[in-house]
């Protein structure tokens, strides 16, 4: 791929054809990623080390932690961010290969339809991620986790485990849910902005 294609692709990703799309890129690329990268590591970075069960043995702690966290929140949210970026990246790669200028995307119906589809796909992926987050993490992190250790041939099948910094994790969960809702609202608003521009209610850039 030539340098011109790379430049067009990067400009498309950073400067979408709509005002709300540009705000979404700023929100998504800076605030959300910073929140996850910096604060997420601070909250969840040492969780496995401080997760303790009764009896406090390494094999029990590891077994119960894997049961408590089938996937770590940082990995899940990082995958969510990457997957949600894919539809827009594909569109801007297509636009770069076809030498489509950003200001022309809202002028031609086929380009506009393709772009709206990429935004709609982002909405679907965010909603699916929202649902998966509920299934995996719920809305609240309890201080006590009841772990089934029957597979370890222990005397008791259920043991109590202490979850470190449960209140901070609950706040972080709510924040990530909020970010998902905000991005979905921005995507819906972007489709509305495109519709208004196509109908002539807003001046096209």
UniProtKB/TrEMBL annotation:
Pfam families: Connexin. It is a multi-pass membrane protein. Residues 125-194 form the Connexin cysteine-rich domain. Gene3D superfamilies: Gap junction channel protein cysteine-rich domain. It is found in: Cell membrane. GO terms for molecular function: gap junction channel activity. The keyword Disulfide bond applies. The chain crosses the membrane at residues 25-44, 75-94, 114-134, 171-192. Its main location: membrane. One of its GO terms (biological process) is cell-cell signaling. A connexon is composed of a hexamer of connexins. This is Gap junction epsilon-1 protein. It comes from Loxia leucoptera.
């Amino acid at each position: 791929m030539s340098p011109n294609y790379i430049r067009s692709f990067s400009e498309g990703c950073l400067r979408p054809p709509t005002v709300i799309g540009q705000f979404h890129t700023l929100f998504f690329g800076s605030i959300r990623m910073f929140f996850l990268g910096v604060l997420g590591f601070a909250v969840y970075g040492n969780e496995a080390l401080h997760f303790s069960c009764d009896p406090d043995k390494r094999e029990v702690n590891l077994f119960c932690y894997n049961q408590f966290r089938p996937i770590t929140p940082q990995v899940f949210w990082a995958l969510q961010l990457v997957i949600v970026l894919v539809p827009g990246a594909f569109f801007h790669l297509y636009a770069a290969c076809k030498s489509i200028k950003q200001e022309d995307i809202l002028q031609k119906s086929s380009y506009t339809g393709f772009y709206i589809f990429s935004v709609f796909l982002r909405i679907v992926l965010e909603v699916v991620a929202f649902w998966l987050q509920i299934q995996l993490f719920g809305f609240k992190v309890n201080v006590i986790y009841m772990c089934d250790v029957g597979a370890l041939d222990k005397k008791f099948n259920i043991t109590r485990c202490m979850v470190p910094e449960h209140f901070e994790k609950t706040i972080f969960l709510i924040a990530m849910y909020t970010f998902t809702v905000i991005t979905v609202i921005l995507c819906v608003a972007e489709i509305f902005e495109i519709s208004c521009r196509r109908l002539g209610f807003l001046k096209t850039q």
